[in-house]
Design brief:
transmembrane helix; two-stranded antiparallel sheet; Arc Repressor Mutant, subunit A; transmembrane; 10% strand; 2 domains; membrane; mainly alpha; 6 strands
Length: 174
């Protein structure tokens, strides 16, 4: 049990003891037992009910909301969001991300076959397998990366899919 949990437990115990003392004083006619006495008893046990209740309404319009459970859920969700962000950012390589951005832009995307074409071909293939890009019928890597010394427009051979566009949105690039 860490220090924060110990202090929460100590606070719960103190509140409960104070509530019980007031309730006992109330029942011994030092205090009259009526709605106020009932409220004191409820207050004495409220700290123990925070795991069960998220909100309590008392007579007289008093409302208590237990935010500890909400805060714990927010911390958990923040961690899960950070995990998802990590996975999304690592889903494609930097080169693959650049291909997606260039396919999504209105700028020309020209390539010429050279020593790095094998890597480019592998990146296109992986993006297609992931469903982030696709190619028109009769077009693809073979037609784009023909070794004839000509430059070709990649966008005539591949296009970004809706999934690819959504991925760029997730990454903040669209």
């Amino acid at each position: 049990m860490n220090n924060n949990q110990r202090s929460i437990l100590a606070t719960k115990i103190i509140i409960s003891l104070v509530g019980i003392v007031f309730a006992v004083l109330h029942t011994t006619k030092i205090l009259n037992f009526d709605n106020q006495g009932l409220i004191l008893l409820v207050i004495a046990f409220l700290p123990w009910l925070t795991g069960i209740l998220s909100k309590a309404e008392l007579p007289g319009g008093w409302k208590l909301e237990f935010i500890q459970q909400i805060q714990e859920e927010q911390v958990k969700q923040k961690y899960e969001i950070e995990q998802l962000k990590f996975l999304i950012e690592g889903f494609v390589t930097e080169n693959e991300l650049n291909i997606l951005k260039r396919l999504n832009s209105s700028e020309p995307f020209l390539v010429k076959v050279d020593k790095t074409s094998v890597f480019f071909s592998n990146e296109l293939d992986r993006l297609r397998r992931l469903g982030l890009i696709s190619n028109p019928e009769g077009k693809g890597r073979a037609t784009l990366l023909k070794d004839d010394g000509n430059r070709r427009e990649v966008k005539e051979h591949f296009y970004i899919t809706e999934k690819g566009k959504n991925y760029l949105k997730f990454r903040g690039f669209a």
